[in-house]
Amino acid sequence: MTEPAAAPAGMGPRRLRAPAGGWRTATVREVDRPTPRTVRLRLEVPDRVTHLAGQHYVVRLTAEDGYRAQRSYSLASAPADPLVELLVERLEDGEVSGYLAEVVEPGDVLEVRGPIGGWFVWEGDEPALLVGGGTGVVPFVSMLRTARELGRTHLLRVAVSTRTLAELPYADELREAGALVVTTREASGIRPAGRLTAPDLVPLWEPGQTAYVCGSASFAEAASQLLVGMGVPAADVRVERFGPSGTSG
């Protein structure tokens, strides 16, 4: 689940009003589990509103007694993909994530609403630095896929932090896109285990980029501080964070 940070005061409106969609009945077409704690769902959503890279969907479950729970999940699919792709991390005691990870099968029907969000979006025409932690890479996968479709992969640079490579969703796709992948619990090649640092990000940064940061609250805070400490204007840093909250999991 992702929760966008508020836009800084004084920021002007986006050049393009982000699309938004209402509730739909989606059919699950594909289910797989790319890492031990995640499930990837590909949904057919009738009459869906085409999204922008960086937006998310809400999934709502309704119990037999009428109790409802809903959670937000970032989109991994590019706008031109005929299916909507979500990656769900299985959280301890997660009402929605547990059901999606353990119960849902192809052919099942889910209530969904989206796309949602207009702050953390990439419209495909400006240079950007993408800094993700763990499952925070999901919206960046959508951005990378969008860039490939548009022939604009040169506009994006990516840095990713993960505990281990086996725990990183879309690891192969990210590395094929040239992402810098830093592992905090194991060595990676000749690089020892360690956190993402300013020297990692400096070679990726160029004036004119917008920086997008997505991950847990602690990762988002640390990565944002790194960028600002490097001299990146705070107004050029867009943050989306996830973690324990009343709407997570």
TrEMBL record:
Coiled coil: none annotated. This is Ferredoxin-NADP reductase. Residues 1-24 have a biased composition (Low complexity). InterPro entries: Cbr1-like_FAD-bd_dom (IPR008333), FAD-bd_FR_type (IPR017927), FNR_nucleotide-bd (IPR039261), MRET (IPR050415), Riboflavin_synthase-like_b-brl (IPR017938). Keywords: 2Fe-2S, Iron, Iron-sulfur, Metal-binding. Residues 21-122 form the FAD-binding FR-type domain. It comes from Geodermatophilus telluris. The keyword Iron-sulfur applies. It comes from the Bacteria. The keyword ATP-binding does not apply. Residues 1-29 are annotated as: Disordered. Its cofactor is FAD. One of its GO terms (molecular function) is 2 iron, 2 sulfur cluster binding.
